[in-house]
Amino acid sequence: MRDNFSENLVALLPNLRRFALSLCRRGDLADDLVQITAERAFAARDRFDPASRLDAWLFRILRNAWIDHARRTTTRGVTVDIHDTPEALVVDGVRHTEAVLMLRKTEAAMAELPEDHREVIMLVCVEELSYREAADVLGVPIGTVMSRLARARLALAEKVGIK
Amino acid sequence: MGISDEMLMAYADGELTASEAADVERAMAEDETLAERAAVFADSRTALKRAFGAAPAVSADLEARIRAMAEADAASRQAPVSQGNVIDLASRRRVVPFWQMPAAAAIALAIGAGSVWLVTDGGRTMGGLEIAGLTDPSITDALTTLPSGDRLDLGGGMSLSAIATFQDGNGALCREFEHVRGGADRVVAVACRAGEAWDIRFAIAAAAPDAAGYSPASSLETLDAYLTATEAGAPLSAEDEAVALGALD
């Protein structure tokens, strides 16, 4: 019998790490958070509702692990850009300069946003969770997700120059 | 009707019901600025999707560690029936370091060591149940003065780290702190101000940080549950904390 839970979890590792990186902005810590998330997920897998989205459930675990960590850590290491491997962005070398510029601006704008804005943007716009699912991950009412997300996207659009 | 930014965004994200969407479309037909604003929301999402694209793969090392966890998990689930409820600790131990054990396991361990205290009645009914060392005046002084994030050496191999200051659901000023004795004996506790004194409201023996100083997160879920149950507010900022503590003297 294939173990779908484990396979799906492994398939989501890149998304988990990217979300972790958007929260903590440190590659080594992002790896730790992903590992802690996987440990907790296996320990609690019987509580996962297969009718719901596994990624949303894992994002919630990861975010709680991050809050635990942040609450106890006052000194931060070196923070890196939201992509810890900037060279990975230059995929084919033929990408139009303007497009690259736009990507860089978007990344830079994300890095400038406060954490609560960054995380809601990552969950909805990048990981494509619904407002309801994002609200469950963040443990806030759906109205809070909407107002935060609207403010975050208007701020981002302004920084990037979207009109 | 007035169309809020949230409505326009939800329209752009396809989160509205058909009748709500029809309302927004009617309003946009009459007011071009609304349509432009909806487009800003749609464009911001497109820009983000493009900027982030597919998530980059994780390191082979991390993936291998998590595959090992999956195998240990599968092995524990397919254990022969004759083993009944015996948990295969050995196979778990290889992949799950002590300090990352799930909360339930960490708590079971603490109970085994006879060192869990839960005091929920304002400390008044503690009776003979005293938390060794935490009634020391040097500790109560530290609670009144030590800023969160700082660590104070109490001598005798003991130290106290202030973690956070917050108000509980009743408005009492509370402090979360860690008390370490001899490097490994670590107690995470919450004390709240009652009159002129600090009352210990919660204390739990926690796994010690590992050699790299990484605090175990999962063993603290019990604390989170306690904080939630007492409706603890968000931690005060450094400035607010200084004001609140200063007012105690």
What does this structure look like?
The complex is a heterodimer of chains A (163) and B (249). With 163 residues, chain A is mostly helical. Chain A is 68% helix and 0% strand. Chain A has eight helices and no strands. Chain B is α+β, with helices and mostly antiparallel strands. Chain B has nine helices and six strands, in the order ααααααβαβββββαα. The interface between A and B is large, with 56 and 49 residues.
Name the descriptors.
heterodimer; A: 163 residues; mainly alpha; 8 helices; 0% strand; B: 249 residues; six-stranded antiparallel beta sheet; 9 helices; 6 strands; 19% strand; extended
Helix residue percentage of chain B? 40-55%
Structural class of chain A: mainly alpha
* Helix/sheet category of chain B: alpha+beta
How much of the sequence of chain B is in beta strands? 15-25%
The span between the termini of chain B is 55 Å
Summarize the structure.
With 163 residues, chain A is mostly helical.
Helix and strand topology:
The complex is a heterodimer of chains A (163) and B (249).
Chain A: H1 4-11, H2 13-24, H3 27-43, H4 54-72, H5 97-112, H6 115-126, H7 131-138, H8 142-160
Helix pairs in contact in A: 2-3, 2-4, 3-4, 4-7, 6-8, 7-8
Chain B: H1 5-12, H2 18-30, H3 32-52, H4 60-77, H5 89-95, H6 103-112, E1 116-118, H7 137-145, E2 151-155, E3 158-167, E4 173-181, E5 185-194, E6 197-206, H8 221-229, H9 238-246
